[in-house]
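Q: Got a minute? One more chain.
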Amino acid sequence: MSERAENITIINTLEGSHEADSSAEKNFESMINCPALISGLSHEMRTYMNSIVAFTFLLNNGNFNDQERKEFTNQILGSCEQLMLLFDNYFDSVFIDTGNVNSEPKICSVNNLVSELITEFGALLKKEEKNDVVVIHENQALFKDEVFIDNVRVNKVLRNLFRNAVSNTKSGYIKVGYSQTDGILTFYVLDSGTEYGKNSYLINEQNLHNAILKYNDTSAALNLAVTRLIITSLGGRIWVERNGISGTGFYFSLPVKKTITTQIPINKLNGTRIAI
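A: Always. Here it is, folded:
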């Protein structure tokens, strides 16, 4: 087996894997009543709530200057956002587990979808003061690329993978890109961080309870579990590769239907990279 093959783990297949899907559904059913998940969520909620209360108290104290009060406000907003992400991922897992979420594909430009997210990701890095990390938008080809796709859930997956990359990368880069061949759309998020081993385990581990206990990281375990759930529900597959020495490369492929618009490659711009 080649070195590249050893560094690749495929989580699901695009078609013909009814037994695997059934097995995955059974494993994911435990997410709702997972003791480690409930305990972990409770702990993280208390942590963020305590932060909100503490910084609100300081904010109301007249002994601090405007710059310090602005920092307190940012801390409060950051804790609120983390709480919202926790709830969002948890409710997504519950809705998918119970079959209450249906895919709603719409006509979508992949170029526009990724470009808008890149702008959002650049703002996130700035907000979290990740001054030593650059986000790079990679396109293997630029073309008129309107397809039928569930853009809301694809956005959710890309946001989850990007936030995971941000938490793993202190300096270096995070690359986001995609390619399209024969009705299959493949996205990827690559980072130059140091958590390949952890990410590989979390995306592979079918038992969320074990995943949480292994690294004592409820947010990361839930984040990747929900990401896998969404991709599976869309009939896609996700796999992980080592990027560089210890960085992580997440790839996921989805079957898509092209619109009547004809793809027109722009050879001169092939391989374009946009750094923000």
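A: The chain has a mean pLDDT of 80.
Q: Perfect, thanks.
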